[in-house]
Amino acid sequence: MKMLKSTLAVVTAATVFGISGIAQAGATLDAVQKKGFVQCGVSDGLPGFSVPDAKGNIVGIDADVCRAVAAAVFGDATKVKFSQLNAKERFTALQSGEVDVLSRNTTWTSSRDAGMGLVFAGVTYYDGIGFLVNKKLGVSSAKELDGATICIQAGTTTELNVSDYFRANGLKYTPITFDTSDESAKSLESGRCDVLTSDKSQLYAQRSKLAAPTDYVVLPETISKEPLGPVVRKGDEEWFSIVKWTLFAMLNAEEMGITSKNVEAEAKSTKNPDVARMLGADGEYGKDLKLPKDWVVQIVKQVGNYGEVFEKNLGKSTPLQIDRGLNALWNNGGIQYAPPVR
């Protein structure tokens, strides 16, 4: 799969920007079908979420969400191209029309959802901000970080949340900001800062890339709510529904025990009416989304259900070794939940 770096050319922006300065939404599906692929904005390299593998393919849970959208639209999860974007670039790339969907460990907030011409399609990963420190620092709680120098990625919700936390607890700190998460992690490793702060999922990912990961520990505190999920341009309800229901399909498939290994057989022989509706064996629910009857079958067959995608990219068999926690299904101790296909 081709990986594209962000290129926000002035001529491109001038072509796609409307009067409001935001690309005119309303025909994203038609444009995607015409060009033959989904252009997906991902991170500039975050293990478990979106990062190039040894062959240069972008892998991770965020990348798999975009593959699932491609599977739903085209019946082919490979019909996706990736634009690697840092935190500062990501929203401009989506607003300008450079990407069709942003699936880049991005926090759903009121200002982003209501004030930027964007809309979040769901939550891929429930997260929260934490702190990564070298064990040599000798602290076991964020309350012991008074006077610390803290590395923070610029253009993220982390900056405000950390400021609020330290002020609320009567603590002082010195922030050092960087444009990329890799720069932040390298500064922690070199000793330029005492602490690296970010979403906890990013802390586990960055720790896995350090020369001596076991020398570092994520402190127990979680100081914010960070629901991370895919984003599209506001005003195109058709495309919004496709991205939203793609994620819902992956969650519902896990809840119903539908996996990449059994989905085709279940589609042919299931006696469960809920499964039959979801997999296209009963009714015409794909029509509502302008998708084929077997859109969920293709998502699960080619990409996997939510649990499969989580375990493959973030779970105990990966270097990140992240517990499902809040990201377990609602009926298994977590809060992941999707409306039904019916």
What's this model, at a glance?
With 342 residues, the chain is of the alpha/beta class. The protein has helices at 10-16, 28-35, 61-74, 90-96, 110-115, 158-168, 181-190, 200-209, 237-255, 263-269, 273-278, 285-288, 295-302, 306-313, and strands at residues 3-5, 38-42, 51-52, 58-59, 80-84, 101-102, 118-120, 125-127, 129-134, 148-153, 173-178, 195-199, 216-218, 226-228, 231-233. Strands 11-10-12-9-13 form a 5-stranded mixed sheet. A 4-stranded parallel sheet has the order 1-5-2-6.
Structure description:
By secondary structure, the chain is an alpha/beta fold. The chain is built from 14 helices and 15 strands. The protein has helices spanning 10-16, 28-35, 61-74, 90-96, 110-115, 158-168, 181-190, 200-209, 237-255, 263-269, 273-278, 285-288, 295-302, 306-313, and strands at 3-5, 38-42, 51-52, 58-59, 80-84, 101-102, 118-120, 125-127, 129-134, 148-153, 173-178, 195-199, 216-218, 226-228, 231-233. A five-stranded mixed sheet has the order 11-10-12-9-13. It has a four-stranded parallel sheet with strand order 1-5-2-6.
List the helices and strands and how they pair.
Blueprint: E1 3-5, H1 10-16, H2 28-35, E2 38-42, E3 51-52, E4 58-59, H3 61-74, E5 80-84, H4 90-96, E6 101-102, H5 110-115, E7 118-120, E8 125-127, E9 129-134, E10 148-153, H6 158-168, E11 173-178, H7 181-190, E12 195-199, H8 200-209, E13 216-218, E14 226-228, E15 231-233, H9 237-255, H10 263-269, H11 273-278, H12 285-288, H13 295-302, H14 306-313
Parallel strand pairs: 1-5, 2-5, 2-6, 10-11, 10-12
Antiparallel strand pairs: 3-4, 7-15, 8-14, 9-12, 9-13
